[in-house]
């Protein structure tokens, strides 16, 4: 076995009495023509002395077909806690991504179409993934592929010319645009000729008509200003807002390339690309009126991104209902002979369900992102004001914002992304359950102990960490030690929930340690070591929460 192969085989024994790590000897049985327990016994004899003399392990034992290793608790605590405190916010980082570029496309709301809660999920997921990759040393680019092009703009322009008013729109762009857009749809049901008018307007827009382009720009700018408020609240930014319109002049080339490669076929007046796999329906490139569609723009975007960024990975964080669309896009790229099509990844996610109609939305059926965040902040504020510790909090609004927004982000990143998200305020703001506030509370608790120590003039900087040998301390140290693995796991699967799970476990173990160890009342040398462990835990919780977009509060 190579060292890597051996490492991959290592497992954690089912109960702590059996040690902290185990090497299963079963795969060696065939090679050595011996029973696994005999191999374990032999290995134990061979490495026993070396293990006993090592810095981190105290002993090894052969049990059945396993070779079990026992850590030196104090030594591990020394190693891990000082590493965390030395590295601070760099603890857990790696350079596995050095020299590699990862594009993360996320959020991508539509201008003039309803902005729904799914956009908040892609925003949470995508931003978290970007932070995770960046933490692992990848060079990342955050892209907002704005839905700022397409036939809906024809509809919107037609609606605006009939019922629109610039001032009202500027005052409340998303709502007003939505209002006239919805009106267009209900009117068009009785007057189908409106649809033709809308198509004609979009054609004018694609052809660069000056007046129409100016109107379009007005809608886009007004909407962007609104979106940016939400991004600010979420502490999220983008490197590029190159949306669909950005590719409007880059599509003729795509059509040319497809023609050159003999990939275009006619179908009912439209130009399509067909696939060998019958389960994938043909991808429409040009509609019968010669206008392009969503898919054409995505092809242009992918090619542009490869040329501009030369990515190693191009991630699209978009709801699972669009899985087929991305399959088509990636297959067309493959047919075009681009071997990098295999580096394009669709990261999908499920629906958000509202079992108890919990949102007091001003907008009928459409759930607005900002409403959800505001409501969460308001509800958090109520909880805080009614809590016993509220008098210690200096800025209740700021704290409520961090907790309220964090609670929503946490809930979206709590479970595997393909699962539907069940949205209930009870779970999201449950300060005692698996929630954002629960983890933030563990952090604030740790910080409060450290403040108390400081106020009492305790200097624990020279603490002897090898005293941390109790069960709860040991479990906590081991978990802190595995932070980097949790982040790598999250990147490998494109699943931020690995980090959410991790930080929740960490908060739980910290609370256990806090409750059983009575930090400030411990004998002074032990107290000092425990304070250091508390500090290291706080560093780790803060970093992990950052990776899922959640900010910490010092007091709550
Ligand atoms: N704007 C689209 C929507 O809201 C999402 C865009 C996804 N990204 C892409 N490259 N097609 O449904």
> What is the helix tally?
21
Proportion of strand residues: 5-15%
Instruction: Estimate the helix proportion, in percent.
Output: 40-55%
Structural class: alpha/beta
End-to-end distance, in Å? 52 Å
Cα-atom radius of gyration: 28 Å
3D shape = globular
Give the SSE map.
Blueprint: H1 3-9, E1 21-24, H2 29-32, H3 36-52, E2 57-63, E3 66-71, H4 73-87, E4 101-105, H5 117-135, E5 139-143, H6 151-163, H7 166-171, H8 173-190, H9 193-206, H10 210-234, H11 251-260, E6 264-267, E7 270-273, E8 283-286, H12 294-309, E9 313-317, H13 323-335, E10 344-347, E11 352-353, H14 369-385, H15 396-412, E12 421-422, H16 425-428, H17 436-455, H18 471-481, H19 483-493, H20 497-517, H21 524-547
Parallel strand pairs: 4-5, 4-9, 9-10, 11-12
Antiparallel strand pairs: 1-3, 2-3, 6-7, 7-8
Helix pairs in contact: 4-18, 4-21, 5-19, 6-8, 6-9, 11-12, 12-13, 14-15, 17-20, 17-21, 18-20, 18-21, 19-20, 20-21
Bound molecules: arginine.
Describe the fold and architecture.
With 556 residues, the protein is α/β, with parallel strands linked by helices. 54% of the residues lie in helices and 9% in strands. It contains 21 helices and twelve strands. The chain has helices at 3-9, 29-32, 36-52, 73-87, 117-135, 151-163, 166-171, 173-190, 193-206, 210-234, 251-260, 294-309, 323-335, 369-385, 396-412, 425-428, 436-455, 471-481, 483-493, 497-517, 524-547, and strands at residues 21-24, 57-63, 66-71, 101-105, 139-143, 264-267, 270-273, 283-286, 313-317, 344-347, 352-353, 421-422. The protein has a four-stranded parallel β-sheet with strand order 5-4-9-10, with helices on both faces. It has a three-stranded antiparallel β-sheet with strand order 1-3-2. It has a three-stranded antiparallel β-sheet with strand order 6-7-8. Helix 4 packs across helix 18, helix 12 (294-309) packs across helix 13 and helix 18 (471-481) packs antiparallel against helix 20. The chain is globular. The model is unreliable at 360-364 (pLDDT under 50). Arginine (ARG) is lined by residues 105, 108, 110, 145, 147, 298, 301, 316, 318.
